[in-house]
Hints:
The chain is mainly α and 317 residues long.
Amino acid sequence: MFSLFRTDRVLAITRKELYEGLRNFRFPLVLGVVAILSILSGLGGAQYVTFLQNQNAFGPIGAASPAIDYGALFGLTESRGLSLADLSILYSPVISILLSADLMSKERESRTMVKLISKPITRSEILIGKSLALVSVLVAVGVVSPLISFASLQASLGGTVQGEDLSRLGVFTLVYILYLLVWGMIGLFYSNLFKKPITSYLVSILTFLVFSLLWANITSVVANSAATSVAQLESEQYMFRMLSITYIFSEVALFVLNPHYLGVNGGQYTFDWFKTTTFVGSLSSVWIDIVILAGSFVVLWVLNYKMFGRMNITPQG
């Protein structure tokens, strides 16, 4: 059973995990890939500005305006390049899984877990220490990626940054970290569930594929079989899609980053270049989604806590 933990032991486990991640270059490699993708997302936004200006289709924020609508650029998935929304929605879960899906299973496969729990250290200290190491790296990713994207876009475009743009980027960063942590907890769950890291990785990636890339097709089939009218079909498709953490976060990202996404009745939204909503208005449309993300993280961590506490660990793994 779990017991109270000592901070020094927890931090010792955290340092061990961080040191191993640095020694095998996994953490620097992940941060390097994130930095490159983030630079590309900023350059993609700048490229889209040039395209719109050449097409004379920039609407209310035209080429003559000194203020660049950074939020809109970050939120556009059609931005003729890798947008920050694309980066965060589709690629970040893979990063979280790569960092978390072997946290426990690698110890069981190498039979070092039984050595850890035989020392004067509790299971809670092991799990909390490993979780802190994971959270530390994911928070670093969640902060670095938007900042690099913003800096890349700013360097390419110049112009005046508006206070609301920074507010949107700041809140997005916090929600982005939550999204990374949720997928990190999913990877940790499978790492607790399976003894072999390769199994943890494969099932984690399969979960990502189902709830991210394939979920729209799955929900369409389910909704089509149950709906009796077009209105009911659209409503049920939206309801089923919101069962996916990826779709919940994608809605938050679009609203928080892009002032041109406007909420309409029934939980749907529309995009309009010629209308904008305030930052508070955008946030009010998705605050429930943010609460769901935070709640999902808490529930998954508690589930991991309970699972690891009851796990039967033997010298054979």
